Amino acid sequence: VGIRARAMMLSLAVACAASARFAPVQHRGLAVVRGVSMSDKVQEVVETMEPETSAPSPMDPPPMGPARSKSVPFLNQPKALDGSMVGDVGFDPFGLSNIDGEYINLKWMREAEIKHGRICMLATAGWLAVDFGIHFPGDKYDGLTALNAHAAMVKSGDMFVLLAIVALLEARMGRLIFDKSHKPGDYSFDPLGMGEGDPEAELKELKNGRLAMIAFSGIVTQSALTGKGFPYF
Length: 233
Known about the structure:
Elements: H1 2-21, E1 24-27, E2 30-33, E3 36-37, H2 38-48, H3 106-131, H4 146-156, H5 158-177, H6 199-226
């Protein structure tokens, strides 16, 4: 019993001494633990404590997914169409922009788009001009419509002259397409200086070319179905 009593008294003494040692006091406006400075010990512990991470609230918005296409909002934005090209609105429902071969790639496709747009702008204007009665001089051009002009030009041999001219132009320009320094659609042909280094002019050309491709397809189809000239119904 004596040993137990002595052990209990010793434990009680130690506890009292510890509580007295660490009792806080005020000293010169600074909170201090007796024998231990707050700035030396306690503050160091407080600064190293990591903040508790709160669980996500049910009201928090869900994490953002892939960016959506500007032109087709229910489809994801194609990775290659990041908006850096003029006229890029993320429209590629068939995923053609993902093709990245040595020769057929996004640059090649932009070149093809610009070239087809330019051809269709000329073709639409030419088709309408013929149907409005504007022809080359000569009896063999009288009575032609835009719909039957192709067959007539092949028969007369004029189409082969046009084919030769186009072949020479393609041979000259085709080499530039695979030049890494070549900008799609740039053939140094701008006699009026209307689009040199002007992104707005490039965008207008691109939009009008896209519209012309659709318009020419519609005009030819309607003309072939009805067999009539302008307005093709």
